[in-house]
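Feature request, filed as a ticket because there's no other form

It would be nice if the structure record came with a short human-readable summary line next to the tokens. Right now we just get the raw output. Example of a typical job, pasted below so the devs can see what we mean:
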Amino acid sequence: MGTYINIGNAGFQSARNGEYVDKSGLIAVVNETLYSKRRFGCVTRCRRFGKLMAAEMLCAYYDQSCDSRGLFTDLEIADAPSFEKHLNKYPVIYLDMSDFVTRFKDDIIVKQIDNRLKADIQKVYPDVPLMDDDDLMDLLVRIVEAKGQQFFFIIDEWDAICREFKAGTKAMDEYVDWLRRLFKGGRSSDVFAGAYMTGILPIKKYKTESALNNFLEYSMVEPRKMAQFFGFTKEEVKSLAQKYDMDYSELEKWYDGYQIGDELSMFNPNSVMQAVDVGRCSSFWAATGAFDAVAHYIQMNYEGLKDDIIQIHRELATGKGFADIVLIPRKNVDSPAIVLELKVNKDADTAINQILRKQYPAKVAQYTSDLLLVGINYDRDTKQHTCRIMTHGACPRDMNKTLTRLLKV
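Raw output as currently delivered:
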């Protein structure tokens, strides 16, 4: 057992020792891609959506240095035709990129990654020579030629360097070149039966060309066949609620906030598991990291991220203009949406009339038919605000609660 190669199945074993929701069907999807043009896959999804557990599961399944049959025989994958064909059949390289960004700086990080992988892999293959000027790919090519066996490469948090260093820095340039050398070179298909990368950010174009356009990307927007493995389905959460004597409707209100591909109701797995563990619902996901970290990535405007966030509700425009603020209620929350228009040195009625004249509610109706129209005017001379609130197709009882909250604000 090494540090980066043939690390065994301990990670997935710990998951099976606790409450485990069966996501082993993911293995069959990956098996379909092995040795094909689709052998390189990158799964990008939000933090706390099970990326690490999926990577550890794949490591346990493919790793030839351990016997993982007992971990899978009672799971969905055991019934798949490809289960026996690939079970514990490959030398697996497992790399968590976040381990390096906290230890090494710009000028040495990629060299450290390459050198440490070479040293660890050569311990497993001591009879394969390592030349002084060999990089990792040189060594892997020589091993495959000598042993006739291809590798499976798993990189968790592949984008950790991208999140830490800006484009154009030495670390980013060298890292992109290193990835290209491994996965986009002439010998890549000879060396790897498959590769599986996880991260938050998508595979991107770097400078004037696509860095890794041969990777098949599975994202929360376009998950392909992996949608059901990106979170917990409604049926899985109902089963957990019954097992732990919890109110499913309450779990649904808190955590059913995602539509991923054809899966219309997907739950945040980390939040659901914490809720059943402590026996109550709370904002567990928000507590897993500081907003400052999210704000940092937004400000970096990676692949236009900041622009996309700013533009999200501009898509609510009807073609006659844009509302100043639109607040959409969470999924499964029985509250109205709010369309708010702000004016200066006019009056609140003018703001409300603009909302109606420009038909702002028409686009919001796709989310809910219950609306509050809010017009606010600020008078620079008197320093006073005036406000008019108008209901639009909503239940008066619900409006009273919402109006009370709004007026307090």
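Something like this underneath would help us a lot:
Residues 244 and 277 are 8 Å apart (CA to CA).
The chain has a mean pLDDT of 85.
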